[in-house]
Amino acid sequence: MYFRVMNPLQSLRQRYLQLVDELSPSARAAYDAVTRQELLPKGYYLCRQGFVCRTVATLQSGSARIFHLKPEGRSGTTDVTTAFFFPGDFVTSFQSFYLQVPSQSAIQLLEESAVTLLDYTALQSLRTTYPEIDQIDRLSNDYYTMWLEQRIFSLQFHTAAERYADLLRNEPYLVQKVPLSYIASYLGITLETLSRIRARID
């Protein structure tokens, strides 16, 4: 979700970052008062599958992935990666966080990462008190909804080779930062298929 060519999603992301930068001093002070900064190790779970996700994290450095564990007995890999996060991203299991229900996914750091953490109750209070923070929160949800719509369309209607070509064009840094097994899972293909596609395209 970074360094993509300019498109409606990228424009929305830039608007989100602009609003964050332009927070009023009072809203910024209130936000800083209820958030905490932490440096967390590689492999740390920001959210576990089956548990309620009570915090949202903003990545200051590092990276993370969201994935779903397969039920026992299913063939193939043990988990399916559905998204990656990098600095500047708003990271949570959206359904779990906003509805406060058990998460269907897990979020794990791919490397040591600096994060800003904000819990659910504090965010709701900020949204009520500061309309500008409510706007930022709504914008982050709009971004996620449109990104998810694009991803579903790609998985449904693009070939494996087209999905990999799109990744190289819009998210080339993933190939350098993320294990190929996770990328294959993210694209909905096997590692062997990804290797064949890479041999033809790269």
Automatic annotation (TrEMBL):
Pfam family, one: cNMP_binding
Positions of the Cyclic nucleotide-binding domain: 40-128
InterPro entries, A to Z: cNMP-bd_dom, cNMP-bd_dom_sf, RmlC-like_jellyroll
Domain of life: Bacteria
Protein name per the record: Crp/Fnr family transcriptional regulator
The species this protein was found in: Fibrisoma montanum
